[in-house]
Amino acid sequence: MIKNERPNKPFVSIIFNRNAMKKLLFFLSIIISQHISAQSFDKVDAKVSSYPRYSNVEDLAKQIQKDFTSDIHKVRAAFKWLTNNISYSLDNSYQKNRSIRFSYTDEAERLQKVKEIKDKIVSDAFKNKRGVCEEYAQSLKKLCDLMQIECEVLKGNIRNSPLSIGKPETATNHAWNIVKINNKWMIIDATWAAGYVLNNKWEKSFRAYYFNIPIELIGKTHFPIDRKWQILWKIDSKKSFYNQPIYTDSFLGKGLSFSKATSGIIKVQKGKSIELEVKGLTEKESIFYVFQNDQYAKKPQIKKSINSLLTIPAPTTHTELYLFVNNELAVSFKVQVI
């Protein structure tokens, strides 16, 4: 049975009150964070950007194989086309009835029916140019299959709001891919790379970080349900995963981290201050913070030594804390005033 998965709404799906939202608008204009890697894909991306909006997955696979020779470039081309052309669907009716039941007499028939269901998902995504995480992940796998590149769809959990911190979900809510290139697995999330949801609207915004997500960082944003990948990628329990802050590519992609283990739930005494020690900040980075429902973003006090110590006056009540780096939402927390 293929189960319905709750749609992914990437990190910046944040609702402030209307007045605060207007005053914070420029802080929520997301600038694409460029993931620094040893390989540049500028030529591949430029070539794929000239492709038509194919309505058939086989036609796209043929074009990619005609234009590129290396597996890494083929996968990048498939990934880039999907992020360019498939929009995330916010239509509730589009996401209904995704749980499909069927009967079968033997294993061969079961596998054939599962294949037909997945092919239908891909076909509809190419025809309608929209979908949720399942469409992105199954489409990338289908393209890789057609190009004879090993690829899997992973199921698991992601978090996109401070409301989810400390509240593990039982069911999975996301799908993404791993692709084998030169005998090494590469982690890819085309859904999050394509854009984000802001105030219930889809915003197209390519985010290169989600092509070849660093293995050492995957556990900060994705929790695979398969125990094999949890062990291989040294990911802690689901409870630990949900207890973390909500990280974005604007934090992780800049090489930033906290100097010590930091909980997603900050407990602070009323009248005291929140202190966060961040590694990797340079003089060029601008830092702002805002609590939920605040009207204005503010600068924390910053004490620079080996790391950067951020000091933020405690709020008066339980709330959510959002940190911005260079006007990009970087990391968020729950705050409990004790």
Key terms:
338 residues; five-stranded mixed sheet; 2 domains; alpha+beta; C8orf32 fold; 10 helices; Immunoglobulin-like; 25% strand; four-stranded antiparallel sheet
What can you tell me about this protein's structure?
There is one protein chain. By secondary structure, the protein is α+β, with helices and mostly antiparallel strands. It folds into two domains: 18-244, C8orf32 fold (Roll); 257-337, Immunoglobulin-like. Helix content is 28%, strand content 25%. The protein contains ten helices and 17 strands. It has helices spanning 18-23, 42-49, 57-67, 71-85, 107-128, 133-146, 190-194, 227-232, 238-242, 249-252, and strands at 87-88, 130-131, 151-158, 174-181, 184-188, 195-198, 201-204, 222-224, 246-247, 257-258, 265-268, 273-279, 287-291, 301-304, 308-313, 319-325, 328-337. The strands form five sheets. Strands 9, 11, 13, 16 and 17 form a five-stranded mixed β-sheet that branches. The chain has a four-stranded antiparallel β-sheet with strand order 5-4-3-8. A four-stranded antiparallel β-sheet has the order 10-12-15-14, with no helix packed on it. Strand 14 (301-304) and strand 15 form a beta hairpin. Helix 4 (71-85) runs antiparallel to helix 6 and helix 5 (107-128) packs across helix 6 (133-146). The model is unreliable at 1-38 (pLDDT under 50).
